[in-house]
Amino acid sequence: MATWCTDQAGPFQTVPYPGRSWAKQERPPRQPHEYVRNGTAKLLTLFHPSDGCVRVKGVTCCPNTVLHGWLKEQLTAILDSLPTPAVDTPQEVIRAAWETWFADLSVRAPLPTTLPPVRMLLVLDNLKGHHTPDFVLWLFTHGIVPLYTPLGGSWLNMAESVQRIIKRRALENQHPETPDEIMTWLEAVARGWNAQPTPFVWGGKRAARRIRSRQRRHALGGSGACTHRPLRRHCTVLEQWHRSCQMTH
Q1: Is residue 173 domain-resident?
Q2: Can you tell me the distance from the alpha carbon of 124 to that of 154, in angstroms, rounded to the nearest whole number?
Q3: Gap between the Cα atoms of 198 and 165, Å rounded
């Protein structure tokens, strides 16, 4: 069963974006303090965490007609590349598989009478447009289970992580003057990412690096402060006497 995440990044303005560069420290790059408000751009994203591949499209606006049309087109292409499900599976077994994903939800969409086999899980945020009956019914008809992240839990959507990477690589230390430039740069970075994608997993290499970083710190008593090297501890008179006795013996 394939698991995909979707999200919309932006809007990105035609303004100078701060960031690092290869310029010498003595001569830092300078960005203009004036800019023209020439519109904004957004990035539609479909992300496959298990292999790291991402599908993107730059747009200047993102109403339901644009978002749903692009999602249906991309999801149909993805489903065509997946193995064909068995046609002799009983409807009771298929419905039970669907029910497992909606069992603990307080608010759930009613499932149709006849359901196809579950072929994909789609992680979305709680935008009102994602709950449109026509769009949800289309997902059900094609065997796609929509999984909505809880309010305040958008960090569970891995599409936001890859969007942050694409945005930083495309716009950091740049000054786009038109929305077309922004969309072109974002899509170019996504193509470069797909040339050698990085799979995303919970508790992967990034989490291991954070654990090692915490292990290199030394906690201080009385607060949550840490140091990167242990502080020298002053010995009491009794401890100094014990140490001198051990050295003499």
Answers
A1: yes
A2: 9
A3: 11
